[in-house]
Amino acid sequence: MKKINVIVCFVLISFFAAAQSAELVYKNNVNSTVTIETEIGQGSGFFVGANLIATNYHVVEGANEAFCYTNSSAAKYEIEGYVAVDKEVDLIILKVKGVNKPAIKMSTSTPTPGQKVYVLGSPKGLEATISEGIVSGLRDWDGTKLIQISAPISHGSSGGPVLNANGLLVGIAVGAFEDGQNLNFAIPKSNLDLLLGFKKSYATPLSSLNGDSKKSTDSKSMASNHISESVKIGSQIWSAENLNADRFANGDLILEVKSDRDWVAAGENQQPAWCYYNNESFNGSVYGKLYNWYAVADSRGLCPTGWHVPSDEEWTILENNLGELNAGGQMKEIDLYHWGSPNEGATNQSGFTGLPGGYRALNGSNSNIGEYGLWWSVTKHSQVEAYNRSLCYANRFLQRFNLYMSSALSVRCVKD
Fold first, then answer.
1. Considering only CA atoms, which of 98, 79, 282 is closest in space to residue 200?
2. Which residues face 131 on adjacent strands?
3. For the purposes of burial, counting CB atoms within 10 Å of the CB of 140, is it exposed (0-12), middle (13-18) or buried (19 or more)?
4. Exposure letters 264-299 (e unless 16+ CB within 10 A, then b)
5. By mean pLDDT, which of 78-92, 138-152, 250-264, 288-302 is the weakest?
6. Backbone CA torsion sign across 326, 201, 85, 185
7. Whole-angstrom Cα distance, residue 154 to residue 158?
8. Spatial CB neighbours of 322, under 8 Å, sequence gap ≥ 6
9. DSSP 8-state code for residue 122
């Protein structure tokens, strides 16, 4: 019994030793926090990796450019763009130019009511402010999970880190009910974990989130498809990211299909349709949308004006330009956050930045995200099948297959 008491005593001492004072939490984390400024407003954020900061999507929503200040100094840095975004959850990961600060350490446990928490942010523009409170509850509103906290969150604190008593990240400050008292909320850290797994290796300008602000705001005229990244391979110019359009080039909406039954029906009716892998929008922020072949072949144009979905012959030209034996390796993105190991032969030497977005079968099932990238050609193989190209984590080849037109694959565009 004495030995057991000694062990219990040691565990308790270790637990309490891990807890930190507010002063220490502040000191250990303030260098990893930032104040974000746009032409629209201000918010908070924190480092999650080299040159990467996390914040709420609404902090930069509608902005064309942004800057950040590290809260430990007056240095100002340009935000190049975003590498991952989930609008529904209200999170975005931004890439910052010319700075490399330590990432905030993350908790591996779920917060529970009664636990002490701290919020670091810039309420009302007052940089590097710390507030203290407790976890008041874990809430679920219409499927959205939030952490209710008593630590104050004011305008400007959105996007700041919520830390536990050990100084580890448990959530991201998102907002408060103005009509209540101490009704403040944070997004669980688990949502950030998911988003980090889908980050791109390059930054996309913030303006691409809003469309071209100089164009008409008429919803019919604002086609959402655009090419923000491209690469020249041989004599061809290819888009360097998967298409993520919900409209044809003329502005007509493409049907989004979620249920397996509706997916089968769209195929049977030869109706153009798109989906997110597993119907999860954060997959679209990295891998783009998946389209059936009927969307690809539609005369309204799936790619933006001046671009088109490649033919089987144009895919063959690309492969010949890169060399048949290692074309796939030169086309695959090297980031193992996306590709499964061993990601054989991956160099991305071509700049194509191929991603393993998986596919949706004609029966509606989703398969192989993280393992295969599959892209349509506009060329028919038969009355019910069309040619496509595939990259696989386990080899270095660009492979040619034919799949049912009712399947959903990724799309790349090639310049006219």
1. 282
2. 119
3. exposed
4. bebbeeebbbbbbbeeeebbbbbbbbbbbbbbbbbe
5. 138-152
6. positive
7. 8
8. 233, 330, 331, 350, 398
9. -
Tell me: do 343 and 261 sit in the same domain: yes
Tally of CB atoms within 10 A around 45: 32
Task: Tell me what pLDDT residue 238 has.
Answer: 96
Give the CA-trace dihedral at 45, 48, 52, 58, to 10 degrees: -40
Residues 221 and 201 in one domain: no
**d(C-alpha 187, C-alpha 155), whole Å:** 16
In terms of domains, do 165 and 223 share one?
no
What pLDDT digit, counting tens, does each position of 101-159 carry?
889 999 988 899 999 999 998 876 677 789 899 999 998 766 678 999 998 887 778 89
Domain stop point among 182, 210, 238: 210
Contacts of 49 (CB under 8 A, 6+ apart): 103, 196
Nearest to 132 by CA among 144, 121, 140: 121
CA–CA dist 182, 402 (Å, integer): 58
b/e map 89-128, b = 16+ CB within 10 Å:
bbbbbbbbeebebebbebeeeebeeebbbbbbbbbeeebb
Spatial contact of 160 and 121, defined as CB atoms under 8 Å apart? yes
Asked whether residue 5 is assigned to any structural domain, the reply reads no
Q: Which residue among 210, 231, 258 closes a domain?
A: 210
Number of domains, the chain = 2
For residue 391, the cross-strand partners are 373
Same domain, 202 and 269: no
One domain, residues 358 and 409: yes
C-alpha to C-alpha distance for 313 and 307, rounded to whole angstroms = 16
Same domain, 174 and 261: no
